[in-house]
Sequence to fold (445 residues):
Amino acid sequence: MEFSSQRLADVVVAVPVGQIDHPNAGRLEQALAPILDTADLPMTGLVLDFSRVEYISSMGLRVLLMAAKQLRARNARIAVAALQPVVAEIFGIARFNHVLEVFPDVRAALGQLSKNALAAYDAPAR
Amino acid sequence: MKRIRFWGTRGSLPVALTASGVRDKVIRALRAASGRTFASDAELHAFVEGLGMPVSGSYGGHTSCVEIETGGSEYVLCDLGTGVRPFGQKAMARHGPASPQTYHVFMSHVHWDHIMGFPFFTPAYIAGNRIRIYGGHAELEAAFRRQQSAPCFPVDFDALGADIEFVHLDPGGQYDIAGMQVRLMLQRHSGDSYGYRFEAGGKTVIYTTDSEHKLEDPAETASYVDFFRDADVVIFDAMFSLSDAISVKADWGHSSNIVGVELCQLAGARQLCLFHHEPIHGDDAIDRVLAETRRYEEITRSGNPLLVNAAYDGLEIEL
Fold:
């Protein structure tokens, strides 16, 4: 599983790639840890761009839920964006669409989380 | 082992089908039949069968009680929820009071919904019957005696006429009972629970209810996979959705359909039977969970298909 992230104003956009199955769930957890542990930087939220995630298992979903708990303790939000159809189905079956904010794309998620982050996303340099 | 017969499949509390629930089913059936005619009873039965469980039937409301028909003359049950009352009636109708029988009962644990049928189990009142109640809990007998003590019940446990014996089993041990090899496994549940692996005649049945799975513990997952290995049927506590099981209902001691599929796939099991249904779920909700679970199995399948069923009172699974 590949993973990258970038900061847009007060929001971090993280991009996991591939299958978040049982073996890869731990890798996602490790990849998210530095982002979640950065308490000294102001952070309104975390957007997980799932456009390149092909599958997520229960272990992977648990990692998302743990991340949500950590962020909520800091009054920050977590959003998941651009789910592929199969992953969206899994979210529905697991009822994760009830416990995590899900958006059709990253821009829509940023629009809900932070105006500054959305402005950075829309900036011409992109 | 020949077959599994479900007498009670509901979790936590018995559930009754209400008058409005029946009316709703009748209306939906009539709507589906609108304009149709049926030339024979067989045609009518076929039509009703095709309506699906939420319309033509019900998942039922008795609490946990599952019969394993071994092919031998002695009865084998898992748990003594309210489903044991109709089981006992059927056994009495079959044998009458003058033909003593032996009943082997494997207890997952002694929470109320798993023992509450026993005071209404008619064979327990009849001298000559032998009842062997097996489990891993030290307080197994005390729990049964307590629920039949005043002021909770009018007939004291000591008034029961059958020869009743409580037999302690240890996890890790292997036992030969009623012609089956039996192993049990300690499970995560308030006050502990035990899952059972029954093997006989080349068939394997797992009874695992009231069991929470902590996904962050790979060793625990591996031990369940080993316990479920190559099972023909896994009767699995799927009371909650995954999100509930690991968030608002974490540590409530139950599992989900998704974890059931994943464990069975890892173990190479052939059939998953969703069990211990959430009592607030109606037939439509359970039916939806079943359809979603089958879809999840399809999405995640990498080897042989895993057959997925939802247990209902009266379901029989041939082994």
Remarks:
- Chain B touches chain A through 19 residues (CB under 8 Å).
- DSSP finds ten helices and 14 strands in chain B.
- The first helix of chain B runs from residue 19 to 33.
- The mean pLDDT of chain B is 97.
